[in-house]
Design brief:
Blueprint (H helix, E strand, L loop, with lengths): L9 E2 L2 E2 L8 H16 L1 H15 L5 E3 L1 H7 L2 E6 L9 H14 L4 E6 L3 H13 L2 E7 H6 L1 H9 L3 E5 L6 H14 L4 E3 L10 H9 L1 H14 L6 E5 L4 H7 L9 E9 L10 H4 L1 E5 L2 E5 L24 H9 L2 E7 H15 L5 H7 L12 E6 L7 H8 L2
Parallel strand pairs: 4-14, 5-6, 5-8, 6-7, 9-10, 9-14, 10-13
Antiparallel strand pairs: 1-2, 3-4, 11-12
Helix pairs in contact: 2-4, 4-5, 4-9, 5-7, 9-11, 10-11, 14-15
The protein binds pyridoxal-5'-phosphate.
Pyridoxal-5'-phosphate (PLP) binds next to helix 11 and helix 15.
């Protein structure tokens, strides 16, 4: 079995490019060029150098001794929380800004929900001196003031989306509209392994540096490249895609994807797409998404803004449908407890997204000798307010 993308842009039955005709030239230009550009020696050199000197890669693979003792298995943390800007998202935006430059683009657009992807995009635009416009729902702008300030400090223009529910999907609509109107000079940086082909594949390739590093780092520490399990949280799925990438076709490595169950899978307030989703089209891609009986996308909920997404990328939809991946849902409370536990046991304050991945050890048992790598996708500084409220700190 091959769990990576095929030539037509599909993972099993999922993926493809379901886009309005007016967007076709933009997406087609990218599709025709992305693999060739990424294969260029000069591209690889610049990408690798920036990952090293600007992002701070390789990020450590850290053996979490006290956590391992508590759960009676060998737990390693891949420290994406130590990346510049505090999470894995920068790996992708660095890759895409270099892609945009190679394609002669001078203007960058992006949409953002909580603002994390907006900040990562504004960061690389500042780095390269390119114009940056970030669309963001009007409600999200109010909810996420610190990230809005960061984007502005980094030189980006933040444009409110004032239609519909004034949140992420409305910002996405605005971004697509802008791209249709500016097909020649503009590149749209998508922030996860979602969207029409080739985005999920391109983003997965940029993030695949994560599992590339895990392989050599684990070899150093354990004398083997393959862990028994690799675990990651899934919003759209990009940090998970990066952590799983080089293990997709290695059946001896168990793949565990962790979704946000919010206040409970069946509470009506969750983002557990694998449990609740049906096949549909979102963001130009055929995948699993949460929707009403007549196909309207339902509003997701999670305490962590990064997991608050009504779909998953097509790679993950296929990992679920094929049974290659084990999917686990974690509630808000379980995630918050696991986050606090990592603080106490290892001195690391994780992003609440990453805390979902850590929470599986309470219920999912592993053998004593199992090597379990958890992708610690981000750090918790941005979540302090939420931790304070939850624990009355
Ligand atoms: C954005 C974000 C996520 C979720 O996005 P994916 O594309 O699923 O990785 C997870 N963790 C952190 C820290 C994030 O910022």
């Amino acid at each position: 079995m091959n769990y990576n993308v095929n030539k037509k842009g599909y993972y099993g039955e999922f993926g493809g490019a379901y886009i309005p005709e007016m967007l076709y030239p933009n997406v087609e230009e990218l599709r025709q060029n992305y693999l060739e550009v990424m294969a260029e020696e000069s591209f690889q050199k610049e990408f690798r150098e920036l990952l090293k000197d600007y992002v701070g890669r390789p990020t450590p693979l850290y053996f979490a001794k006290r956590l391992s003792e508590k759960y009676k298995t060998k737990i390693y943390l891949k420290r994406e929380d130590l990346c510049h800007t505090g999470a894995h998202k920068i790996n992708n935006t660095i890759g895409q800004i270099l892609m945009a430059k190679r394609l002669g683009k001078t203007r960058i657009i992006a949409e953002t929900g909580a603002g994390q992807h907006g900040v990562a995009t504004a960061t690389v635009c500042a780095l390269m001196g390119l114009e940056c416009i970030v669309f963001m729902g009007e409600i999200d702008i109010k909810r996420q003031a610190p990230n809005v300030a960061r984007m502005k400090m980094l030189g980006a223009k933040v444009v409110p989306a004032i239609s519909g529910s004034k949140t992420l999907k409305d910002a996405t609509n605005e971004t697509i509209r802008d791209w249709i109107n500016n097909p020649v000079d503009t590149h749209y940086i998508i922030g996860s392994v979602v969207g029409p082909h080739p985005y999920p594949d391109m983003v997965a390739r940029f993030q695949s540096v994560v599992s590339e590093e895990i392989k050599s780092q684990l070899n150093e520490k354990e004398g083997r490249e393959n862990p028994d399990f690799v675990v990651a949280c899934v919003g759209g799925g990009s940090n998970a895609a990066g952590a799983f990438y080089h293990y997709l076709d290695k059946p001896e490595v168990g793949i565990i994807a962790v979704e946000a169950a919010g206040k409970g899978i069946y509470s009506g307030e969750s983002a557990a797409t694998s449990a609740l989703g049906k096949v549909g089209i979102i963001h130009g891609s055929k995948t699993l998404l949460m929707q009403t009986a007549d196909g309207q996308i339902t509003e997701p909920y999670s305490i962590s803004a990064g997991l608050d997404y009504p779909g998953v990328g097509p790679m993950h939809a296929n990992l679920f449908a094929s049974g290659r991946g084990e999917f686990i849902s974690i509630t808000d409370d379980e995630a918050m407890q696991a986050g606090l536990e990592l603080c106490k046991l290892e001195g690391i304050i994780p992003a609440i997204e990453s805390s979902h991945a850590l929470a599986i050890f309470e219920t999912r048992k592993f053998k004593k000798d199992d090597v379990v790598v958890v992708n610690l996708s981000g750090r918790g500084d941005k979540d302090l307010e939420t931790y304070i409220k939850h624990f009355n700190l």
